[in-house]
Amino acid sequence: MQNTTDIQFLIVPSSLGQTLIATSANKLCALFFGDDRQSLLHALRARFAYATLQEGGAEVAASGAKVAAWLEAPVAALDVPLDLRGTEFQQSVWNALREIPAGSTASYTDIANRIGRPKSVRAVAQACGANPVAVIVPCHRVIRSDGALSGYRWGVGRKRVLLEREMAWSNDQDQSRVRPCQAFFNA
DNA sequence: CCTCAGTAGTGCC
DNA sequence: GGCACTACTGAGG
């Protein structure tokens, strides 16, 4: 993996707990959650094993502020460029995830169908878990086909919070809009 | 409820 | 290349 890049990161509290925001060449490359600094650092190190890590820095401060604000009130699209490294398969999954509207969910099967690999259901789940940028690539909107929340890399509790929050927000925004819920991909 | 096989991408050896 | 992982799923008991 070409993760021999220079990375700036910071750890800030948010409504979802301790939040690690990392940038590489001014692009967001990681958004992790955790209960403590230790686990976040560990996750960062694990993801970018050969990168140079620097805590703080002008670049991450600037985009970090945007990300932190957007997390609490994602009213507009986040204008921070992303740096998503992954295999072709992972990229295709992450792209599909970004088409799930806030306030709705899709199943792992839905995503598998969406990317034209109907049998790669488990692999889809694995790719979701490998998503380096929580919330922005909304892997939390993928749940089991029976409706159970299934897992979440940063804890199912956070997944639930995120989903409930998005349901609530999308409800009291425009009631008129048709809001596809489960399985909106099956058409 | 529960178990089980089918199944496919990834990481490590 | 092999092998053991999974945030899965539908069928069968």
Shape from CA axes?
Answer: globular
Q: Label the structural class.
A: alpha/beta
Computed Rg = 16 Å
Contiguous runs where pLDDT drops below 50 for at least 5 residues: 176-187
Strand content: 15-25%
Strands ordered across the widest β-sheet: 3-2-1-4
* Cα distance spanning the termini: 37 Å
From the structure provided, what is the oligomeric state, counting identical versus distinct chains? Answer: single chain
Number of distinct beta strands = 6
Q: Name the helicity range.
A: 25-40%
Explain this structure.
The chain is α/β, with parallel strands linked by helices. Helices cover 36% and strands 18% of the residues. The protein contains six helices and six strands. It has helices spanning 37-47, 58-72, 88-97, 108-114, 121-129, 156-171, and strands spanning 6-14, 17-24, 27-34, 52-55, 106-107, 142-143. The strands form two sheets. It has a four-stranded mixed beta sheet, with helices on both faces. The longest helix is centred in the last third of the chain and has 16 residues, at 156-171. The chain is globular, with a radius of gyration of 16 Å. The N and C termini lie far apart (37 Å). It binds a DNA duplex (13 and 13 nucleotides) through helix 4, helix 5 and strand 6.
